[in-house]
């Protein structure tokens, strides 16, 4: 690529086409340093100012644009308040640097001279700045702006709040990275930029917890949540919340039991059985199987499938996310039953009923609904979250139950994968928020890795990579500094490696723990070290803030093994806050990760944080 000076501007030109230009500023000097093929560090120096606009203009009308973790091509899916479009009532959105999973990053893709080009711009972390991306007169404008600003409004939880304007002292130096690529998979021209940002902020530090600590603390919290109801039903309460009347942590009194998603009853039951076998502790084994058996006995519906919830007196939906997770868990329970000297047939039947329900309710185009009513009629159709039913279908095939399960899985995967490649995002996985999100992309990674294991076809590895790259857009590649008085500062919480929930709920949670083993499988199959590094960063981030029984947050001592469901890392509420909802699922994902990765040649290296493999 040729770089030409035109006045104060720098023009990037290839084969006679202008691809982009850095709009210069009188009185300032822009210096470009090549840091890789198509990777430029831009340093702007001058006499000094109390504000600065650094503009990079792409010479095309984009077919895709993004602020990662924040705005995907203008958002617009779902029903909640979000950043919609590239402006509000004609005024371009300004996003604080911490709203983006790479600091102040904007990305766009367009066609010039018949070639797909991508342009990404981002800054250094914690640089008191913001970003903006919007179309203007046939071009795409990438802006990094100092000082930090959120306007014309700040995005709060379900509403727009007042704008935010920071100030800064006189400043003479400003830095950003400008990255070009071409002929990459559409809607993923950001791959080079993500690798660049990751390398700039790469971490090398030990894990907060070792394997045995994760197991002991996780088992302790599972036992805390274990509950036997008066009618005999046994389950894991969905979590603990602070009770102001008793000044203590208490179990939820309604919406108490969920087989997957937030409650993860089936997965936690397997964890207790596994740990009971490991310790020779019959009481743990009995508790685990009592939960599995309770769901089979008490929560079985007339449509011949286990319900997603057990809440007598409440009419709740059957959900693809819950069913898919439960299907895999019951297949695992079948194996654990054999190891424990218990009859495996009830668990196999429960898993196959989920798979048969999926096939009988699969539409001609391959998709499943997001959720059904308890009588099996569709409640909500749209959402990539239906892909959660792919993994148990593949498992049914791998266990020898017939080709129809593989065919159904492949048809469903084709439908949902096309959604991702067509739109550049996935939807409706965070069940309480109907929006573009991270969780709905997870089954596309898991499903592809399982299909590769079942068929040995390398096409699935390429599809798994595409899904994994999308998930990267939700993963923070840097550490945000919080107010010294905040809960996250007291916890020494590091945002690096953690993931945003959705474009509506801009908090950080450890839900990515659920696909750590799949990233490791992708590393094994591809040899690409980035997946190992990203998996380790997720694990490290997700093991922070787990109470050893003495941890005090906001003046309240937390039970052993408990952890906040999420953390407020943006200005969508109190920045730097730790949620006081100690939910079940982080424990289950950590325990499952150890079960799935245990016994491998690299197990100790992974859980110790080793990167030089």
Entry keywords:
about 625 residues; Glycosyltransferase; 7-stranded antiparallel β-sheet; 15 helices
What is this structure, in a nutshell?
This protein is α+β, with helices and mostly antiparallel strands.
What does this structure look like?
The protein is an alpha+beta fold and 613 residues long. It has 3 domains: 2-200, no CATH class; 204-261 and 282-293 and 474-613, no CATH class; 299-467, Glycosyltransferase (Alpha/alpha barrel). Helices cover 32% and strands 25% of the residues. The chain has a 7-stranded antiparallel sheet with strand order 1-2-3-6-15-14-11, with no helix packed on it. Strands 4-5-20-13-12-7-8 form a 7-stranded antiparallel sheet, with helices on one face. It is globular. The two termini are 35 Å apart. The mean pLDDT is 96.
Whole-Å distance between the termini?
Answer: 35 Å
- Overall mean pLDDT score? 96
Overall number of strands: 38
Number of helices: 15
Please tell me what the overall shape is: globular
In spatial order, strands of the major sheet run 1-2-3-6-15-14-11
Radius of gyration: 25 Å
Structural class: alpha+beta
Q: Please report which band the strand proportion falls in: under 5%, 5-15%, 15-25%, 25-35%, 35-45% or over 45%.
A: 15-25%
Low-confidence spans: pLDDT under 50, at least 5 residues? none
Estimated helix fraction: 25-40%
Q: Can you tell me the number of structural domains?
A: 3
Task: Please summarize the sheet with the most strands.
Answer: 7 strands, antiparallel
């Amino acid at each position: 690529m040729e770089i030409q000076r035109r006045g104060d501007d720098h023009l990037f030109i290839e084969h006679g086409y202008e691809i982009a230009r850095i709009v210069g500023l009188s009185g300032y000097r822009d210096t470009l340093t090549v840091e890789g093929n198509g990777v430029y560090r831009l340093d702007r120096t001058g006499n000094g100012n109390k504000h600065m606009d650094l503009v990079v203009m792409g010479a095309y009308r984009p077919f895709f644009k993004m602020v990662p973790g924040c705005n995907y091509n203008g958002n617009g899916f779902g029903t909640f308040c979000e950043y919609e479009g590239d402006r509000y009532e004609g005024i371009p959105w300004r996003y604080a640097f911490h709203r983006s999973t790479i600091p102040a990053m904007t990305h766009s893709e367009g066609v010039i001279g018949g070639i797909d080009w991508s342009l990404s711009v981002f800054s250094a972390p914690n640089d008191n700045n913001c970003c903006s991306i919007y179309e203007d007169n046939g071009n795409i404008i990438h802006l990094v702006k100092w000082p930090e600003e959120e306007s014309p409004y700040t995005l709060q939880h379900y509403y727009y709040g007042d704008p935010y304007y920071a100030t800064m002292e006189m400043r003479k130096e400003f830095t950003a990275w400008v990255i070009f690529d071409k002929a990459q998979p559409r809607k993923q021209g950001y791959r080079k930029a993500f690798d660049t940002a990751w390398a700039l902020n790469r971490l090398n530090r030990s894990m907060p917890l070792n394997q045995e600590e994760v197991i002991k603390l996780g088992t302790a919290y599972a036992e805390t949540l274990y509950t036997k109801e008066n009618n005999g039903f046994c389950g894991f309460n969905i979590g603990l919340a602070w009770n102001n009347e008793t000044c203590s942590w208490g179990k939820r009194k309604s919406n108490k039991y969920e087989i997957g998603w937030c409650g993860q009853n089936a997965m936690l039951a397997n964890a207790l059985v596994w740990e009971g076998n490991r310790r020779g502790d019959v009481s743990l084994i009995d508790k685990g199987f009592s939960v599995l058996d309770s769901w089979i006995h008490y929560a079985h519906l007339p449509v011949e499938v286990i319900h997603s919830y057990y809440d007598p007196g409440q009419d709740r939906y059957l959900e693809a996310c819950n069913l898919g997770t439960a299907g895999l868990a019951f297949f695992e329970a079948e194996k654990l039953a054999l190891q424990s000297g218990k009859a495996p047939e009830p668990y196999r039947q429960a898993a196959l009923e989920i798979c048969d329900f999926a096939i009988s309710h699969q539409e001609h185009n391959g998709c499943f609904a997001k959720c059904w009513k308890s009588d099996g009629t569709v409640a909500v159709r749209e959402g990539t979250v239906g892909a959660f039913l792919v993994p148990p279908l593949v498992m049914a095939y791998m266990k020898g139950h017939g080709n129809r399960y593989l065919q159904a899985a492949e048809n469903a995967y084709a439908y949902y994968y096309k959604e991702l490649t067509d739109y550049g995002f996935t939807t409706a996985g965070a069940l309480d928020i109907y929006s573009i999100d991270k969780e709905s992309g997870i089954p596309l990674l898991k499903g592809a890795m399982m299909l590769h294991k079942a068929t040995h076809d390398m096409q699935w590895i390429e599809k798994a990579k595409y899904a994994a790259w999308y998930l990267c857009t939700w993963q923070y590649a840097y550490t945000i500094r919080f107010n010294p008085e905040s809960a996250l500062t007291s916890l020494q919480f590091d945002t690096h490696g953690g993931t945003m929930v959705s474009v509506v709920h801009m908090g950080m949670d450890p839900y990515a723990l659920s696909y750590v083993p799949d990233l490791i499988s992708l590393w094994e199959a591809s040899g690409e070290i980035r997946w190992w590094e990203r998996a380790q960063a997720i694990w490290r981030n997700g093991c922070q803030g787990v109470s050893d029984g003495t941890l005090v947050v906001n003046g309240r001592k937390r039970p052993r093994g408990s952890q906040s469901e999420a953390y407020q890392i943006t200005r969508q509420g109190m920045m730097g806050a730790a949620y006081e909802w100690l939910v079940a699922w982080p424990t289950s994902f950590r325990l499952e990760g150890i079960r799935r990765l245990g016994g491998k040649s690299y197990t100790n290296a992974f859980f110790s944080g080793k990167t030089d493999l």
